[in-house]
Amino acid sequence: MTTAPVDPMIGRLIDGRYQVRSRIARGGMATVYLATDLRLERRVAIKIMHGHLADDNTFKTRFVQEARSAARLAHPNVVNVFDQGQDADMAYLVMEYLPGITLRDLLKDYKKLTPEQTVDIMDAVLAGLAAAHKAGIVHRDLKPENVLLADDGRIKLGDFGLARAASANTATGQALLGTIAYLSPELVTRGVADARSDIYAVGIMMYEMLTGEQPYVGEAPMAIAYQHANDQVPTPSSKNPGVPVELDELVLWATARDPEERPNDAREMLERLREVEPSIRSSQQPAVTQATMVLTNAASTDAATAETRVLGAGALPPAVASTATLESSEGEGTAALSKSADRRKRRGYWIIALVLLLTGLAAGTGWYFGAGPGALAQIPETATLAPEPATLVLEEAGFAVELGERNDPVVPAGQVSGTDPEAGEQARRGSTVTLFVSKGPSILAVPEVRGSPSAEARAALKDFTVVEPDVLQFSNDVAADLVIDVLDADGNSVGSEYAELGKLTLVVSAGPVPDVVGMAGADAEAALANAKLEFAYLEPVFDNSGEIADGHVFAAEPTTEVVRPGDTINLTLSKGQDLVAVPNVVGKTMAEAIALLEAAGLKASYELPDLFLPIATVKSQDPAGDSQAVRDSTVRLVGSLTL
């Protein structure tokens, strides 16, 4: 035989003041306990943030925000907040303790409510909400789970954990908050909320109370959200013909898709509800005593602050509403009166037994669906955690865990990539949640895009992350804007396979390096700068070919093997031709002439055999003596022998 584990919080003394007695309920962000305030000797409800959320500043901020939002409100229909603090690593919130059930529990027990019961409960809800709107607070999470029906008849609005100040449209700045079934169209489409968004949620709640079901259902949350954004909520009487037209109109007014067509705030809707309340009550059959009634303090003249009282769930069955009547007439004897008294006593016993039975059933049902195994809980976020801590987080939230694997292009292998159902969705406590551990990204084939235009290459590589901007590279062989190469994350040419969503870089041709040889120096500089290339000058040289004029680029050489924008091109300017003076060697011997020409930097050509050079005489030369010639050029000599 196994026993349930003992909650370590039971019996703990928090902040030296609050003695924890028992657990009341557990939610996605915190657990609520019944505790005793030892200082004031009263029972309180203490809400303690889950340990795994203590280091998350977002959750801490939201937790403190709930305390501040609710503490600003002092109204009979709003749960009072007494205290908020931190004990070691544990954030807590102290509220008044209200033994009873929620409106959700009531709807689970009775499916739908009568128009009078709906009016009574909505009167209290709107009164509390009107106080919040007057204080500039938008609740943003109105739903039957947050409407508390106390055993003493009070109705209170609680859980301001998502509340925000309403001074201007309030954007969520993150994924949509609140329960999807009650989200207004503007929250779904634009992520902004104001007081009219709360009114929309009130209208959905009224529809559910009158018909026993929500107006929109679907297998996935996005399907429900789509209906909120695109469809008009139907009238409750289309599902329940017994709904009076006044309540139909109220629901349609509150759930208009355009916020401008709804009541501006809860006060405006509350006033309209109270205007039509007499006609609603008069249109109903008076033979059955209503299960829910509103009692107001007779001394109070302000209807908005009147104390609202509702009979508990056990008072709702028709058997309780039946009243015993004593059928007697004048002249009845003592025996008849005695029998009548006995009948009344026996009937009273049966009614008491029935009330106790139904109260027990309601309490048991409320516990099962509110805090027991049948309660809904939010799937916590576990992505990027290691499997062990993620499993603990899910188990602490009340779920069984089954491990699975799947590829994920973002989450590294070995870390949690998500769950099924997904984080943020609602599921039954005790149900199984599949925890997916990432196997890393899938390995995909890489399409061949070399030689393709860059835009086409990007489209072909859609399964990968193509880094921007492209790397430009000058090429004499590949036309501009065509892909030269595809590089992986390490800067190497990518192979035939690569990881899904892995980073790739396109090397795209910028066309050939500008040809600046023969250009004047200034023109060459402008051409290179226009191509986003740098330049540097080397020592100028003579161009004895005569092709490159003085001051023009004789040579342009890159300083890198691969030329890309920003690289440097070395420029060599021409100094023109290197000219020297041609000596006059006519009359000299061939040997003397050759020596003189070589000394001047010239070469000699002749037709005589070398044997005759010392004795042959130069008769003519070309070019002529005392002229100029290009260094290393040849002077033609004509000689003869003198005998």
UniProtKB/TrEMBL annotation:
Give the protein name, as stated in the record: non-specific serine/threonine protein kinase
**UniProt keyword list:** ATP-binding, Kinase, Membrane, Nucleotide-binding, Serine/threonine-protein kinase, Transferase, Transmembrane, Transmembrane helix
Coiled-coil ranges per the record? none
**Organism per entry:** Agromyces badenianii
Q: Which CDD domains match?
A: PASTA_pknB, STKc_PknB_like
Protein kinase domain residues? 18-280
Its BP terms in the Gene Ontology are:
negative regulation of fatty acid biosynthetic process
Q: Name one Pfam family in it.
A: Pkinase
Bilayer-crossing residues are 348-369
Lineage, highest ranks first: Bacteria, Bacillati, Actinomycetota, Actinomycetes, Micrococcales
Could you state a single Gene Ontology molecular function term?
A: ATP binding
Reaction it catalyzes? L-threonyl-[protein] + ATP = O-phospho-L-threonyl-[protein] + ADP + H(+); L-seryl-[protein] + ATP = O-phospho-L-seryl-[protein] + ADP + H(+)
State its Enzyme Commission number(s): 2.7.11.1
Q: Which InterPro entries match?
A: Kinase-like_dom_sf, PASTA_dom, Prot_kinase_dom, Ser/Thr_kinase_AS
Highest taxon listed in the record's lineage = Bacteria
Identify the residues that the record assigns to the PASTA domain, covering every copy: 372-439, 440-510, 511-575, 576-640
